[in-house]
Write a structure and sequence with these properties.
The protein has no helices and eleven strands. By secondary structure, the protein is mainly beta. Strands 2, 4, 5, 6, 9, 10 and 11 form a seven-stranded mixed β-sheet that branches. Strands 1-3-8-7 form a four-stranded antiparallel β-sheet, with no helix packed on it.
Length: 111
């Protein structure tokens, strides 16, 4: 059974940093791409970044240069390092592995 579990959210001031983790059990990170998505209040869910099975990573324009995605195959874990956070980064962050989603972790950027 595949499970996706995110952690690491919290509240920070603008300009601050947070590190998110996503543990995927029941399948290898080499099986499918893994993506980070986010959903702000009253807005549609949007794609943030993705790591392909070969390790190639892509980012949405809104986060490129501030967010860094990485993975540890041995731990079946992907990470999202978020720097220089802005209020518009506020939302619930979700991890996705094909047809499986985590429960999400809340990120709030506010002064």
């Amino acid at each position: 059974q595949v499970q996706v579990v995110e952690s690491g959210g919290g509240q920070v001031q603008p300009g601050g940093s947070l590190n998110l983790s996503c543990v995927i059990s029941g399948r290898s990170l080499d099986d499918y791409p893994v993506g980070w998505f986010r959903q702000a209040p009253e807005k549609a869910r949007e794609w943030v970044s993705m790591v392909r099975t070969g390790g190639y990573i892509t980012y949405a324009d809104s986060v490129r240069g501030r967010f860094t995605m990485s993975r540890d195959n041995a731990k079946n874990t992907v990470y999202l390092e978020m720097n220089n956070l802005k209020p518009e980064d506020t939302g619930v962050y979700y991890c996705n592995s094909r047809d499986h989603w985590g429960q999400g972790t809340q990120v709030t950027v506010s002064s």
